[in-house]
Design a protein that fits this description.
Length: about 250
């Protein structure tokens, strides 16, 4: 006689996962319309065709929901980084491409970046469940490790010398500095405050601004390559242009 118990649990897990994805997708739509702080769990539950109690069975609070949305957004962002990993070029080029793709994703999906940005606030993650917050930390850690791997592999091209601990420290500091640079431009390009100081120029030229800033940072770190700024911009045209402007291959 066939044992159905082995089939029931996977089906329940799949159903739960599908429902959670539905909740997150609809949460993203609602947040883009009314904002996170005006989001009502009752409205979201109705939109998903489930009860409020069922929704809370997946996400214990609005903060937990936001962390979940940020993790989903981060997973979509991470898929783009495979393009950098598969690039047939140096480790530093892969690092540059990943940095540019990171900004491109935020420009193309501002509502997802907003969720990631808000989820970093202590007032949010401290109110989330430990498991949800740990998923957020694990995801950020994996992306940080990817960038660090590129820099470690490109240490010679950057002129980073010394013993292993010293090389690791310099590469880690560079990773932190460039992450701060890229994240800062991610925030500024989506901020209304930016418009008041720079008009639309930063929004229109965000990728080129990041290109030049990355080139300057890497040159300062010791990157020796002919026409670094042009090289970075060339990678941007190939990998980080808007979809309508991507060159045909």
């Amino acid at each position: 006689m066939e044992d159905w118990s082995d089939m029931i649990a996977p089906n329940r897990m799949e159903k739960r996962q599908n429902r959670e994805e539905l909740i997150l997708d609809n949460a993203g739509k609602l947040i883009s319309e009314v904002g996170f702080f005006e989001l009502k769990i009752s409205d979201l539950a109705k939109m998903c065709g489930i009860s409020v109690g069922t929704l809370y069975g997946h996400f214990a609070s609005k903060e937990d929901l936001l962390i979940g949305l940020a993790v989903m957004a981060g997973a979509k962002r991470a898929q783009k980084f495979d393009i950098a990993r598969n690039h047939d070029g140096s480790a530093i080029e892969k690092y540059i491409i990943a940095s540019l793709l990171d900004l491109r994703f935020s420009i193309d999906h501002p509502q997802l970046f907003e969720a990631e940005y808000l989820a970093l606030a202590p007032s949010v993650w401290k109110r989330a469940t430990p498991a949800r917050h740990q998923a957020q930390l694990d995801q950020i850690g994996a992306v940080t490790e990817m960038f660090q791997t590129f820099l470690n592999a490109g240490a010679d091209a950057l002129g980073i010398s010394g013993d292993l601990p010293e090389r690791a420290d310099r590469a880690r500091n560079l990773n932190l500095g460039s992450w701060g640079l890229g994240y800062g431009i991610n925030v500024l390009v989506l901020s209304e405050i930016t418009d008041r100081h720079y008009g639309q120029e930063l929004r229109k030229n965000a990728v080129n601004i990041l290109c030049d800033a990355l080139a300057d940072l890497l040159i300062g770190a010791g990157w020796q390559v002919d026409d670094a700024h042009q090289k970075v911009r060339s990678l941007a045209r190939r990998y980080a242009a808007p979809a309508t402007e991507m060159p045909q291959t």
